[in-house]
Write a structure and sequence with these properties.
By secondary structure, this protein is α+β, with helices and mostly antiparallel strands. It has 4 helices and 11 strands. Strands 5, 6, 7, 8, 9, 10 and 11 form a 7-stranded antiparallel β-sheet that branches. It has a 4-stranded antiparallel β-sheet with strand order 2-1-3-4.
């Protein structure tokens, strides 16, 4: 909406010339229902009222953002945790800016190395041993390198409740597990 030039306070009154029949607070799904009738990437014309002026604004309909469950995932068997890429809804629910990077901890095995290091489901993992991690595609080679070098500890930088934490995880190599 912002890319198309819509602003906070605009009142959308029509879609491609068809009046939007919404006058009550419970009518919030009327416009989304109308928009779902169009194909992705098609352009529609919204008629809006802004500062007492009626304007017609063309808007290209983008693909819906991927849901959290649809995001790429990675599981690390050595440290017993799973991560996934950030979804659009994560940014909304956590009040993160569009430029916030990292990957979300999806699960931590109870009694595993990540759990012992106090990693929690929902943490935002932003770096491993000082190397920034913006996607699971970046995470896999970092963790493969760690599995090869078998360090005694690794340091995860996570963001939890808008606080940066540095968590130390012990490797399982010394216990003969791997």
């Amino acid at each position: 909406a912002e890319k198309a030039g819509l602003k906070v306070g605009d009142i959308v009154v029509a879609l491609d010339g068809t009046a939007i029949a919404a006058s009550q607070p419970e009518d919030t799904d009327v416009l989304p229902s109308m928009i779902r009738q169009y194909k992705v990437d098609s352009t529609v014309e919204l008629t809006i009222i802004r500062d007492k002026a009626t304007l017609k604004i063309p808007v290209q309909l983008p693909k819906s953002p991927m849901l959290p469950r649809e995001m790429p995932q990675y599981r690390d068997e050595n440290y017993d945790f799973s991560v996934r890429d950030i979804a659009f809804l994560d940014r909304i629910h956590n009040d993160w800016h569009a430029d916030q990077t990292g990957i979300i901890i999806m699960s931590v095995n109870e009694g595993g190395w990540a759990a012992l290091g106090r990693v929690k489901t929902g943490d935002l993992l932003v770096a491993v041993n000082g190397a920034p991690v913006a996607s699971v595609a970046q995470m896999a080679p970092i963790m493969a390198g760690i599995a090869k070098s078998r360090p005694e500890i690794i340091i995860l930088q996570v963001k939890r409740d808008n606080v940066n934490l540095f968590l130390e995880l012990q490797g399982s190599w010394q216990q003969g597990r791997h």
